[in-house]
UniProtKB/TrEMBL annotation:
Gene3D superfamilies cross-referenced by the UniProt entry: MTH938-like
SUPFAM superfamilies referenced in this protein's UniProt entry, alphabetically: MTH938-like
Main localization, broad class: mitochondrion
Family membership: Belongs to the NDUFAF3 family.
Annotated Gene Ontology cellular component terms: mitochondrial inner membrane
Record key words, sorted: Mitochondrion
Descriptive protein name: NADH dehydrogenase [ubiquinone] 1 alpha subcomplex assembly factor 3
Taxonomic superkingdom: Eukaryota
């Protein structure tokens, strides 16, 4: 208790001393701007993912209302991408996406850490049974529009992550 009283008694003296030092002319720092940390910590100049993609790696380069351009080749209809493998996929609408249409994930190894479902033009809610099936395989699920699903797939694949994408063409609206 005595230590606390001593600290409380010296606090006003300490505060006066700090105010005096801050306001004295000798304590003024030169008014120089701080260096920009944005440039110092930016990796943009050092890493360019777009130009440094290995030739054997899948990369979505474009989309139409009926299909996708992947690594220079056009694919019509829905596609299923697992790692660097691309397959034609049967669902034509979001309602056609079922546990049966994704049953390949019960046998694929290594299991992708995430499945990105491209819902077509608009994001659709995933029914609980399908969500449960995807969880039972050990994957996480992201359901977004097909344009953003393709971009997300590119980014995660370029990072070296094990990722899968099940994409309906962008023109699909239901």
């Amino acid at each position: 208790m005595a230590g606390r009283q001593r600290a409380v008694a010296t606090l006003p003296t300490l505060m006066r001393a700090l105010k005096t030092n801050i306001n004295s002319p000798s304590s003024k720092l030169p008014n120089t701007p701080l260096p920009s940390l944005r440039r110092a910590f930016s990796l943009y100049d050092q890493i360019n993912l777009i130009d440094n993609v290995p030739e054997d790696q899948l990369r979505f380069q474009g989309y139409t209302d009926t299909g996708f351009t992947v690594t220079g080749k056009n694919y019509e209809g829905s596609v299923l991408c697992i790692g660097n493998l691309i397959l034609s996929w049967t669902p034509k609408t979001f309602a056609d996406i079922t546990a049966d249409s994704l049953s390949i994930f019960q046998t694929v190894r290594p299991i992708p850490e995430i499945l990105i479902i491209g819902c077509g033009r608009y994001i659709q809610p995933v029914n609980p049974e399908l969500r449960q099936f995807i969880r039972s395989t050990g994957m996480k699920l992201e359901a977004i529009d097909s344009k953003n699903a393709a971009s997300t797939y590119n980014i995660l694949n370029e990072e070296g992550r094990i990722v899968a994408a099940a994409l309906l063409p962008y023109g699909v609206t239901s």
